[in-house]
Amino acid sequence: MRLRIPIKQFGLAPAIALIGMLILAACAAPTGSQPAPTISVGAAQGASPAQSSPAPSNGSPAPASSNGPAIPSTPTKLTVAYSETFMGILPVWMAQDGGYFQKHGLDVDLQFIASSNAVSALLANQVQITSGGGSEAVSANSTGADLVSVATTIGIYPYVFEVRPEIRNVDDLRGKKIGVSAHGSSSDIASRVVLKRLGLDPDKDVNVVTVGSAQNRTAALLNGAIDAGLDQPPGSLIEEAAGLHQLVDVAGLNLPTPNNTTLVQRSYLNANHDVVQRYVDAITEAVAAAHKDRAKSIEVLGKWLQNTDPTAMGAAYDFYLKVGGSPPYPAVDQFNDAVETLAVDNPAVKSVDISKMIDRSLIDSAVQRGLDK
Predict the structure, then answer these.
(1) What is d(CA 342, CA 107) in angstroms, rounded to the nearest whole number?
(2) Is the Cα torsion angle 112, 281, 338, 90 positive or negative in sign?
(3) How far apart are CA 71 and CA 164, in angstroms?
(4) Which of 1, 32, 89, 337 has its Cα between 20 and 30 A from that of 343?
């Protein structure tokens, strides 16, 4: 290799000195054909790999940031339950179908386990994580369980209060059947909150009927087995097409609740903190993606809700944007209604320290690494 030193530019003495340094460097360099190390501009400026690397051209998630938990070469298997099949589960479904679980080294088996049964499965170690109502966790912790909320993807009541055609006002609700999934469930808490706001006593003025699930509630409203109940698109659209109507836009009240919260046993969190962090990372990214990608979100909703009607899925997605929080932080005030309502039948609920059953640090970590963008 021939080097040309521009003497006119540097001057004779500096040029001779530069030639000497180059000769010494050449003598000190190792022999062989090893290439010189490459310095990343992003790394030199302090950017994370996720920020400096372009996203894959196939639309899949970008590689995980290296300053988060280590991604294992063999994906970690997780069994995760979700307790309702409704638009509020979109972040979990998006994480699965959008590749975010895979990106963070997780092989997730999603299982639908209705209502409070999901928490029972968590306590029995049949699943490692649940995505469902926080009221069930409060009840469980009041009896000695130690469940922790690490994320809340739906932090307000995501409902409209649908009633049969003959019910035109609040007084018409007296003596009528109000459908809820299960006693103490999120829909039960929400229904009681709404009835009290309407000036009715849930235990005296109406008949609260358990029907098992949100899907059963929709069916019961349509066939007249119940007179009123909470729902959201697409179920509410079907009901309104059949002549039912909204008495209250509950979502519009913007009342805090842990309607869809991510729960783990504290023992599992302590022993597998990096696994839970990777799960929260995936959910945080999936929430951000859901808020940005309407087409993909509607596709995912259609698949999991088994509904190919683009209008219905578009309405479900728009309703999700109305009630879904990003970043998905859990918060103490989300549990206030649950504690107040459950304490009527279970005074031990008042002894549950909600601040200790919430861990916001995992979302904090995800946000600090920009996963909510």
Answers:
(1) 36
(2) negative
(3) 52
(4) 89
